[in-house]
Amino acid sequence: MCYNIITYCQYSCSHRDNTGNHRIDCNSRVCSLSQMHQREEHDCQNTCRHSMLPDQHLVMEQNPNVCGGCASSMPNGHH
Prior knowledge:
- The chain has one domain (3-66).
- It has 2 helices and 3 strands.
- It is mainly beta.
- 3% of the residues are buried.
């Protein structure tokens, strides 16, 4: 089944900023969300999958600094 990879940059304060969303195609003929889904007539409702797997969240970058919210003088570092 298809899924999304959500990528992040993580700061030394452990807060994360989203850096991208990437759709991963499972390339399955029986996945209705895939570009490879079979085009010929078939009983799609009963033979194919129609939902995505849960999103996968990955830290792809580490920033040795604290995030902007933590660096500011706001209480608790955030609004």
